[in-house]
Amino acid sequence: MASPAALADYSSRRGSLIADDRSMRREFTHANAQSDKEIKADKIIRKIRALEAETIWREDHPDVKHPFPGMEFLTGKSIIMKTRIFEILSKMPKGALLHSHLDATVNAEYLLDLALKHPFMHIRLQQPLTAETLSSNIPVFRALPAAYFTNHTSLMSAEVGSWISLQNARNSFPSDFGGVKGFDKWVIGSLTINPTEAYDTHNTVEKIWQKFTGIFLTSAGLIRVQPIWLEYIKQFFRSSVDDGVSYVEARINFLPKFMVGSDGQENIPHREWLLLFEQALKDVKEEFAQQGRGHEFIGAKIIYSTIRAITPEELDWYTEDCIALKKEFPHLIIGFDLVGPENAMKPLIYYIEPLLRFRTRVEEEGLDIPFIFHAGETLGDGTEADVNLYDAILLGTKRIGHGYSLFKHPKLVDICRRESIAVEVCPISNEILRLTSSMLMHPLPALLNNGVPIALCSDDPAVFGNMGLTFDYYQVFVASEINGLSTLASLARDSIQFSMMDAQEKAQATAVFEQRWAAFVDYVLTCEV
Amino acid sequence: MASPAALADYSSRRGSLIADDRSMRREFTHANAQSDKEIKADKIIRKIRALEAETIWREDHPDVKHPFPGMEFLTGKSIIMKTRIFEILSKMPKGALLHSHLDATVNAEYLLDLALKHPFMHIRLQQPLTAETLSSNIPVFRALPAAYFTNHTSLMSAEVGSWISLQNARNSFPSDFGGVKGFDKWVIGSLTINPTEAYDTHNTVEKIWQKFTGIFLTSAGLIRVQPIWLEYIKQFFRSSVDDGVSYVEARINFLPKFMVGSDGQENIPHREWLLLFEQALKDVKEEFAQQGRGHEFIGAKIIYSTIRAITPEELDWYTEDCIALKKEFPHLIIGFDLVGPENAMKPLIYYIEPLLRFRTRVEEEGLDIPFIFHAGETLGDGTEADVNLYDAILLGTKRIGHGYSLFKHPKLVDICRRESIAVEVCPISNEILRLTSSMLMHPLPALLNNGVPIALCSDDPAVFGNMGLTFDYYQVFVASEINGLSTLASLARDSIQFSMMDAQEKAQATAVFEQRWAAFVDYVLTCEV
User: Where are the domains of chain A?
Assistant: First the structure.
């Protein structure tokens, strides 16, 4: 009774509806049609993904309770790193990294090593050291002027609150606390979020943000020291490039008006920060050029940021500071943002006067400093953080940082597609900061199907452990049957297209990307299943 | 520099954008404009909600780790029940309950009491009883023919696998297992999902579904016994009406061709099930009429369902069975569905031939049996369960059961709005079955803002503990700053409008609802803040 004609008709209507539903996806709008090679490579990685879903993700892992592809990153990371998909994606060219907070971009081990090179780096306790409370005993770091150096040789003998040199504190760390290794583990624990915190003791958006913001206060003492900062930035560039990232736009928090110099004084103003940034850029470009990898690193720029906890009057100072820096470093300053926990701090509308003033001032000065706002990094519906999305868009934001709640807003989704406002999606960050419990619950598929331009970003990889972009690409790739090789390419291409590079840089970045992409496809074709 | 005119202009554009973004919400399309009273009542409940978010939801609750409004239902239920919002919502008229599985609609305590009235009800063990393994030791229930009655007096003395009368088993339950109370707790535990299972031991969609489907196998032995079934249905109606529900459409699983009669034989065919349903309906209507509450209960109908694990050939038998029942009980059978875990069982496309045949047959017979399909009850993206949404819509589904992944599909969302395909959203079910970790992560706001008609539903309240609809309304109401009194009214009105009642019944249900709604608003006005 269901005739072949009826079945054929149904099948044809079905194919059309599915195609129509997915027709806005940007992988279809990118000019590059899939080559035969890409079609073959796509089949290969889908096959490996399916195989690994049924093998490594189904096996018993003694330390991992409920393994599945796209699971909580901090628990699943050890499994991810054993997969072939991870190995393959680590070789993929990723385009640009458009959303990362500079203070959380270099892994904690490396940062500690950097700090340990400097005798002026000091540490102090806020409470007595005991083995039981070690993990919640957050140390304080600072570069001290020589006049304040102490002769304490151990954290145990020094009074709580007294400074002791970092090197001494480490070398004398009690053996029942693990000695030198125990010291490193303790310090690194204070600079990162661990699975117990994310998934148990701090398992709400509000609680994990308390730990998260605490980390920035702690790490600033180590990072924001002139000679360390320079090396820190260089390492950020190197590790990004090693992961296949060609270009970065880092958000730098300019709230503190000075960083600490080698003399231990807080006296390095913002314009010197930019000189250091420029120096790091130049040095690392030379390094890569010397290795014959010069084409792999296009460059780096800065989104000027301050914290959404200041007063509107204070914001006027920062916007003028931003304008002054833009005039001196027009190639480095490419946007303005307000950062910090959206649920807890001030909404954009609170700053509407200084923000409108800033826009007028920028025009008067004939400058180009677009807003690139964080907005909608929230589970709230109609809350101030959610409503930030309206203001970000009305204020002409070039991109949206996170836009986690964007999918709820039909008109805003429409505007983002039509006006090409890209969203900087940070999958692992969203999950660790408890907006989503796993990649499977993330609303990204809704944005992709609605044709919103997307750039995947790592946000704070030093805190989350998702160094580079491979981990974020991994989580996105394994959480959807729709996502394929062309999705990966589309995300990487969008990251270049929606960066703030100038036309010439973009052309260069695109040419390099396409060449590397072709090589990547060739590599995938060699991956036997 | 930001002139008053510029600020006023911004403010006006902002208001327009927000209004535009929310303009599709159905609370604005319902003819009923908000009265002054409603506007006042809305302010009152918003104020209480805000107050309780900052008081009861922030207090320390020794048994609840991370309390917040919209949290995991099984953990938060005790707090919910202490709130004034819950008390208020429990008095709200709810319209229709459009998605519930009959076998999971009466609370387990009541069911056990019903079963204990019948000496023919028996129980047996599948493994020896020990105190340690009690909670995982799932009993088996059955009504036995008298010839099979045993003289075992205790589960401890009977061999594993031997039947013993339920009454005896209970009365002799060992005191070190808690005696009679321990027995009740054990049985009820086998019929419900507890917080440890949902949020710890079975904390993935796949694992919790294993427990979930197991419960239906266990409870069938108690429920699908003619005299119990009749009382069971009556209690479902009563408790629904007591919660403010005026009308229900229950999915009944017709997979087993017979239920057990009072004689312990499996010999009661489907048409007799419908006679029993009709009897229950008549009896409960009379009960309410006698209490002067006749207007509170409009009626109940049935969505014929079978399990999506059968073969396409077997489905032909069920569709013909459905047609035969529809002919005899045209006022009771109002739709057809395939149920069971979508991720694990067969997709709609697997049944495309019998389903198309069914549609032709229904037309030939001049009947009206629309599909009312489960679809998209999944975290999958592009998986068979997600793709079910396309097939449900192409097959002309009148409503969509769950549609959890619908928000990802722009064209389907559009179709649902334009063609008035309502979605039966089951917030608490979705959370306990681990599609979402809390109401804050649920995609419902996206559907509401897109103007998709929504009916809130309880799905399997006997298993989840969300009896009635108050709990589901609670979770939705407290998880959004946008949702207000008019949202609640809109959801209830949609449940009536998108039910399968005939025009006359709908008119009656609507008239009763509007009258009760007005009384509810008056009541809210009396709720001091």
Answer: 94-108+217-479, 119-191
A356 contact residues in B (CB cutoff 8 A): 1-2, 6-7, 10
Superfamily, domain A94-108+217-479: Metal-dependent hydrolases (3.20.20.140)
The single-letter code of the amino acid at A460 is D
Coil, strand or helix at A307: strand
Residue with tokens 């303790």: A186
Query: What is the fold, at CATH topology level, of the domain defined by B94-107+217-500?
Result: TIM Barrel (3.20.20)
Query: Does the ipTM surpass 0.90?
Result: yes
Residue B300 phi, psi (nearest 5): -155, 145
- What pLDDT is stored for residue A243 in this prediction? 98
Report yes or no: A30 and A448 within 8 Å, Cβ to Cβ: no
B413 pLDDT exceeds 60?
Answer: yes
A34 contact partners, CB below 8 Å, separation of at least 6: A42, A485, A486
Q: Which residues pair with A375 in a beta bridge?
A: A402
Q: How close are the terminal C-alpha atoms of chain B, in Å?
A: 43
Give A155 to chain B, closest Cα distance, Å: 35
| Amino acid letter, A113 | D
So what's the pLDDT on residue B34? 87
Q: Which tokens belong to A201?
A: 């003791």
List of E strands, A321-393: 333-339, 373-375
Question: pLDDT of B175-219, one tens digit each?
Answer: 999 999 999 999 999 999 999 999 999 999 999 999 999 999 999
The residues of chain A scoring below 70 in pLDDT are 1-2, 31-32
Phi, psi torsion values for B46, nearest 5 degrees: -65, -35
CA-nearest of A236, A501, A208, A191 to A377 is A208
pLDDT tens track for A112-144: 999 999 999 999 999 999 988 898 999 999 999
Q: CB–CB of A353 and B66 under 8 A?
A: no
Give the C-alpha separation, B140 to B298, whole Å. 36
pLDDT, residue A402, reads 98
Residue among A1, A13, A410 whose CB faces B394 most closely: A13
Question: B435 CB near a chain A CB, below 8 Å?
Answer: yes
pLDDT of residue A143: 96
- Averaged pLDDT of chain A: 96
Per DSSP, the three-state class of A252 is strand
Interface test with A, best of B9, B21, B353 (most A CBs within 10 A): B21
> What is residue B35's DSSP assignment?
P
**Residues linked to residue B100 through DSSP beta bridges, in sequence order:** B250, B459
State whether residue B387 sits within 8 Å of chain A by CB: yes
Closest CA to A92 of A529, A525, A523: A523
In B407-426, the residues whose Cβ lies within 8 Å of chain A are 407-412
DSSP state of A76: H
Q: What is the 3-state secondary structure (H, E, C) of B389-455?
A: HHHHHHCCCCEEEECCCHHHCHHHHHHHHHCCCEEEECHHHHHHCCCCCCHHHCCHHHHHHCCCCEE
Nearest CA to A528 among A41, A36, A82, A58? A41
Question: Looking at residue A156, what is its pLDDT?
Answer: 87
- Helix, strand, coil % (nearest 5) of chain A? 55, 15, 35
pLDDT tens digit sequence for B43-52 = 999 999 999 9
B469-484 confidence digits (pLDDT tens): 999 999 999 999 999 9
3-state secondary structure (DSSP) of residue A429: helix
- Dihedrals phi, psi of A453, to nearest 5 degrees: -65, 135
Q: How far apart are CA A178 and CA A23, in angstroms?
A: 57
Sequence-ordered list of residues with C-beta below 8 angstroms from that of A352, at least 6 positions apart, any chain: A391, B2, B7, B10
Identify each DSSP E strand in B107-211 by its residue range: 121-124, 140-143, 164-165
Radius of gyration of chain A (CA): 24
